[in-house]
Specification:
8-stranded mixed β-sheet, single chain, 296 residues, alpha/beta
């Protein structure tokens, strides 16, 4: 069964006249008649009864009409959807973002991407690197923005976006506020607020032990907003990436002895073909001026 046969059949249903149906479909009447006959052969019975100048649907024709109308309608919908997808109209894009990445570095980029590709429907999901990696491999995420202390798995393509320093965040009025920069050992004896989802949590803990710095862990939380609010309230200090420190009530100073930084990268699955929306997003990332934020 071919789509043109269905269109011809439905045209005859509407006009009950083979000549007018052929004109509507822009084909000759013999071509339309042959297509209807082939459709009747496939379905196993007559669809129309032609009596002199009168054409009527048979019982089989009446039975088939709603089914074939549905087939044609769904086919046209599929074509429109595919056309819109390729033109980036209502094109989905699932972006995974590591939950410790602050949003301000991305607002300019996302605003520009939205302006250039208004038809892309972007869904953002936050999680830890291990979970984002799983979702990428399962195809539930198209791309992810992540950082981690060690190298990513070989199955991923990694594009560096920017480097970001770690800072020590503390409340206004703290003694650290008089300093321009801090050493890791300066946190010795401080009340500490632990960011549970920090991908550098273990590495920072090991660094503190190496430098002889012991902190008093008073609170732990998976939520960055709670940690920052507790810092602002004077409940303790914490290490955090420079561009994650967004609460207006906290102050921060960079860690310079030793300097600690992370590389924030765009991650995709190696060898996987991009949809048009993903290809547009990756190209926009490539062209965006992220700036050189490497620690000197």
């Amino acid at each position: 069964m071919e789509m043109h046969q269905i269109r011809y059949f439905l045209a005859v249903c509407d006009t009950l006249n083979f000549t007018r149906a052929a004109e509507r479909c822009n084909v000759t009447q013999p071509a339309l008649t042959r297509a209807i006959q082939k459709l009747e052969d496939e379905l196993g019975g007559l669809l129309f009864r032609r009596e002199r100048n009168l054409t009527h649907l048979t019982d089989l024709g009446r039975l088939m009409r709603p089914h074939l109308e549905q087939v044609l309608g769904e086919t046209e919908t599929a074509k429109r959807t595919a056309k819109g997808f390729l033109k980036l109209d209502d094109a989905p894009l699932n972006l995974g973002v590591m939950c410790t990445i602050g949003p301000q570095r991305f607002m300019g980029f996302l605003a520009d991407f939205r302006m250039r590709h208004p038809g892309v429907e972007l869904t953002l999901l936050e999680s830890v690197p291990s979970r984002l990696s799983e979702l990428l491999m399962e195809g539930k995420l198209d791309v992810a923005i992540m950082a981690q202390p060690g190298p990513f798995e070989e199955r991923f393509d990694v594009r560096l976006l920017y480097r970001e320093r770690f800072v020590i965040a503390f409340p206004a009025g703290h003694a650290f506020e008089k300093r321009n920069a801090l050493a890791v050992q300066d946190v010795d004896g401080e009340n500490y607020l632990s960011r549970i989802n920090c991908e550098y949590r273990d590495a920072l803990g090991e660094l503190c032990r190496e430098r002889g710095a012991t902190v008093h862990r008073v609170y732990s939380s998976e939520r960055e907003d709670w940690i920052q609010t507790m810092v602002a309230a004077g409940l303790g200090i914490c290490f955090m990436p420079e561009y994650s420190a967004s609460h207006p009530g906290i102050v921060s100073r960079p860690v310079v002895d030793p300097p600690v930084e992370r590389e924030v990268s765009l991650i995709t699955v190696g060898g996987r073909r991009f949809s048009p929306s993903v290809a547009a997003f990756v190209e926009a990332v490539r062209r965006h001026e992220w700036g050189d934020l490497a620690v000197a």
